[in-house]
Amino acid sequence: MKSQLIKVDDDFWNLRGSFRIAGLVDIGTHISLVKRSNGKFVFLDSYTLSDAQAEEIEAITGGSKNIEAILNLHPFHTVHVRAMHQRYPKAKLYGTARHHHKHDDLPWQKLHCEDSKLHDKYSDDLDFTIPRGVDFISANENVHFSSVLAYHRASKTIHSDDTLMFVRLPLPMRWLGMGDSLSWHLTLSQALEKRPGAAAEFRAWAEELIENWGDAQNLCAAHTAPLLARRNRGASIKQRIQKALDKIDGKLNGHERRYG
User: Fold this and answer.
1) Does this model's pTM top 0.85?
2) Residue in 22, 187, 161, 41 with CA at minimum distance from that of residue 96
3) Judging by DSSP bridges, how do beta strands 126-129 and 149-152 pair with one another?
4) CA distance 160 to 14
5) Of 3, 74, 147, 185, which has the maximum CB count within 10 A?
6) Which CATH number fits domain 4-259: 3.65.10.10, 3.30.70.380, 3.60.15.10, 3.50.40.10?
């Protein structure tokens, strides 16, 4: 997968990077760069930047002195954290509890990315939400469903790691009438907490997401591709998330029948 920096809006950029499973299959990954209303910049997540990519970012930010913080939002996305800190050592480094445990020698800020106080700290520009009814940090390290989702209000852009997935099919397949796909991460069934009420809590959270972020125009999702307003020839993001929720209704109902 070719790495590229995409300008989503005047204050939001998304970099599509490479991530190979077992060194073979490239499923991709991403980070986002946000210009805050105070003129400073924050990264959402981490990636090992090439010198050329770092130069592109420097041209946007005016230099690393203007990069305020790195917010690592997915507890299981830890591969590039150290390289990101080495590239921007003066930026405040934030992560989830798992980041702190996984790389306990790095100079983490005390607040975790799942903490509401951190969300309040950046509330001038960003809204955050965490799925309910599912494990945030699963005991099964192959279950990567949950993350901290971020919404940049000025650009109407959702940044999601794994939780929401968008697949843009190759052009020949689109010529054959096969549409792009927005869905929930495939590990939802494993992520749902095995207790009464978990499925109902997840459904309520998803409905709140659809309502509260219903004006979203862009979605930047890990491992797949961004869905941008200027390229969207189909339903709105709100409608697509609702459709994705409708598709898992049977799965949620099944969980409720088993656990209550």
Assistant:
1) yes
2) 161
3) antiparallel
4) 11
5) 147
6) 3.60.15.10
